[in-house]
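Lecture notes, structural biology module. Today: joint structure prediction for complexes of two components.
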Amino acid sequence: MNSKVADRIATTIFYLIAATIVTVLVGLLGYIIFHGFSKLNLDFLTSPSSSFRAGGGIGNQLFNSFYILFLTMVFTVPLGLGGGIYMAEYARPGRLTNAIRTCIEVLASLPSIVIGMFGLLMFVNLTGWGYSILGGALALTVFNLPVMVRVCEDALRTVARDQKEASLALGITHWHTIKTVLLPAAFPSILTGAILASGRVFGEAAALLFTAGLTTPTLDFYNWNPFDSTSPLNIFRPAETLAVHIWAVNTQGLIPDVREVADGSSAVLIISVLIFNLLARWIGSVVHKKITASK
Amino acid sequence: MDNKTMTMAASQRLLKKSNKSALQKEKRGKYLVLASALLIISATIAITIFLGSKGLQAFISNGVSIYEFLTSTKWNPTAENPLYGAVPFILGSFAVTILSALIAAPLGIGGAIFMTEIAPSWGKKILQPVIELLVGIPSVVYGFIGLSVLVPFLRDTVGGQGFSLLAGMIVLSIMILPTVTSIATDAMSSLPKGLRESSYAIGATRWQTIWRVLIPAAMPTLLTAIVLGMARAFGEALAVQMVIGNVRSLPSAITDPSATLTTIITLNMGHTTFGSVENNVLWSLALILLVMSFIFILLIRYLSSRRQF
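The predicted structure, tokenised, for the full assembly:
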């Protein structure tokens, strides 16, 4: 075959591949948003779900998702920041650093169901909490920690060397330099990374099945005492998140309007993830403009 | 604190040997971040030990035979004579992983080449965000679309129930496509420019350059991309569980329903009693998942040690 003909055929194939990938995404998003959008109304988003009858909403699930996400980030951000600072600033080449790197790699590649099972062993059975929001949030912390450490480490490493050296040359201690020079400069990328990681946590289900459970008790949204069992803020109650809800209604659900509920929930999940993505880019660039001199 | 520093005399502000509080803070800070780094190690060790000991319990204290577990194809833990053959799930996991990699690898690497070689200017602007959005779609949503679109479609066109190895393979290949594409793109764009230019200079066409020069040069990293995708496919639970059909027997064709390690765990973990034999064998299945993810990491380490560029 003529090599020019072969070249043209190959080019066409590459175009087709690219078109396929774009079509897949457009098809997926289009399908979810087209089917789900009509189901989205305030009532669906705020009313509690029903286990047998049609017409249930996703109010509790939505609240649970955001609450677990919030708790997870409360645990992950400081730990990830600490790990990232250590890896970027203090770690010297050697066995300990290698070991930490290997562990980050292992944790990052563990299947989320395995992390969920570890959570079941550790935060459900060993602690005696049963299925709880706290257990779910801790399992998701294990799931999210390696991502957060990498984000923080990369963000700190990309800060210009001059800035750090200038600070050290003034006689400022290393720790103070990190706190006052490096962290502010790395803040926009850390924030962007944290929001992107939030999107991942928000959609995670496998790690929550056996840690936060598949049920939500009746919640009284006027009761904000975190120690009361009907309070939404109680961290020791079981909590089904939105992503888990989609799985549960499809595989074990008894409600007749499975499709409607799943369509609507998937649309909410996808739209939330899209918002997280856009927010990450937008906030990142806004904060970057605010705290640096660059235009 | 700023005000205080300013009102201090110059001699006090200078960093001297006696500046104890700054040095103490330095130490405290260092130990604080070291502690968070060590927490990562302890979490990894805890996961390995906990899952390892729990996974071996079925063999050690319940007397399940390891040989039967790894070689028998009969799984029925609730029967009068319980059978614990995990082969259908192990094979199912490997089958969907390899099959989905067979689809995702050419598509992903093709997409990467499109972005870096064919249309570097506008192709990247379109495909990059597409890939990032695909990563962001939660796995249950993939499973739900698979369940509500793909399964009925397969039922009508290919026949059978629709719930099949084929459905699992298609859903997984879309899920791992972004992983493969983004790493393959990094691999292609990190190749030195000289490679392309010298190939074009001796009169090779673009396809010849890609096929004979660039792909072989980037091979170790391209393989890393595929292995990482396979690792993700192997551990994926819910999306596969929703479309694969979940039977306990070996599939005889690609259109037959099947099961994987993750799907059987997902289905049965919730309603078996903690500590029972039935439950313990599920932990043994999880141990296989853990061991496999270690093997994937070793494979990736080996591949990255062979990187040339």
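Point to remember: The CA atoms of residues 20 and 26 of chain B lie 10 Å apart.
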